[in-house]
Amino acid sequence: MSRLTIEASTPLCLLQDAGRFGVRHLGVTQGGAADWRSMSWANWLLGNGLDAPVIEITLGGFTVVAEDDCVLALAGADLGARVDDEPLAPWRSFRLNKGQRLQFTQPLLGARAYLAAPGGFDAPKVLGSSSTVVREELGGLDGMGHALSKGASLNYSGNSVMLLRKLTADQRPDLKLDTPLDLVLGAQIGEFSGQSLFDAFNSVWNVDSRADRMGIRLLGPALQYQGKPMISEGIPLGAVQVPPDGQPIVLLNDRQTIGGYPRLGALTPLALARLAQCLPGAQVRLRPVVQEVAHREQVEYLRLFLNH
Amino acid sequence: MKLRVEVVALDCLMVRLFDEIAEANMPWMLAASESLRAAFGKDLIDLVPSYTTLMVHYDLTALSPTQARELIAEALIDLSPNARTRGKCHVLPVWYDLSVGPELSLLSQRSGLAMEEVIRRHSEREYQVFALGFAPGFAFMGLVDEALAAPRLSTPRKKVAAGSVGIAERQTAAYPVVSPGGWNLIGRTPAKLFDRNRDGYSLMQPGDTVRFEAVDHAEFINLGGDDTPLEAQA
């Protein structure tokens, strides 16, 4: 068993895996890494299952010291990581020798970095998952939904892969936002005014500072829903709901399980992974996509993880 | 029943069974849930029931949207509610008291009924669990006697005690854990509504029925209830 000790942390540094499934009918949220793609690559670099527990570091402020020689992997945002005084770029596995310090300082590109360990970090499974949901007091190192805290030990049990790897240019996700975010059109799309439909897909949307693991608010022209009030129903990951003020909210992993606001539809998993890396003030566009096409693209993307 | 299947996300479809909230929906909802679970088997990731709909979240690596639609169509042919698909019936003890249910007086004023009559009307009905949501184990139940219906508080409380029983419009619910909340509180139950160590986790499941039973302070304490007044916890 190898060990890291946390020297600094914030309420936004959380143990996460792919999420909690099979219990949403009980009101239990999905949870899981907000950027599933970066989590998957971090695990892939070490030969782990893609859903092994990782550390999600949002914005920085996280430091660990190695108590043993370790091989770890880093993917996702560039949060100005340093091993002692050496800068460490993401999308690679790396050595952290006993006594060395890994520090995340500030966001340089993207918002969330994922740190993986061989076999995944040790944590109890609660309702089938180690995902930390603070609001529901589920998951994390002690199973009670606490964020990672200073002084805590991080353990893992897998064997270190000796060969260090880094993603090729083809594999490495682009965290910049030059292309629009794909949105699968939902059933209420026809209930928005014509002008609102035009605005939804032809405007620049600003990512609001009101953004957390439940949802990210987008600021732009007010969208107008003209349908009947809705009865609460299940909400999928990535749903773009429009409350009465007309400003859309993209619902993320820790969203409530049911809700009654009309929706434009839902972002695709790849679009959601990109949005999860946006800082407040970022500008995004939306693009409608058909469910079958989005499905084929997702299946195609998942094939990348089959190469070793 | 006017069944529709709608797109909600890349790997989710909404099965819409009804247009209005009604207690009579529930046997159909349960039968449809059971049939969908059987049809999707291991390819079902989650099935989220709510009042009039069932959201099917399936494994996109196993099924295309077209295949998922076909499974849904097959599962719902010749659907009929039967005795097997009836939910459980729960009796929840409640200590109705102003110290833990301050809106008892508000509901009494609104309805012109004495507080004892408000309590009697709340505890005489058998309610359906329409959906769970808001928090793990939080069951939306109804329908409450029309005279007791009241809108949510204009300013939600930052902290509502675990076990608090409330009313919002014609629905009633009990808070499983301490949380913010805007329902009109009328009492408190000592029942543990969500327990990670219990089989099935949540005491109440969608489609179950629930009756509230008024208990006095001594019995509430006897059953393990916490009588700390609401204001003292805020």
Automatic annotation (TrEMBL), chain B:
Top-level taxonomic group: Bacteria
Regions crossing the membrane: none
Gene3D superfamilies to which the protein is assigned, alphabetical: 3.30.1360.40, Cyclophilin-like (2.40.100.10)
UniProtKB keywords: ATP-binding, Hydrolase, Nucleotide-binding
Domain Carboxyltransferase: 3-204
Pfam families named in the record: CT_C_D
Name recorded for this polypeptide: Allophanate hydrolase subunit 1
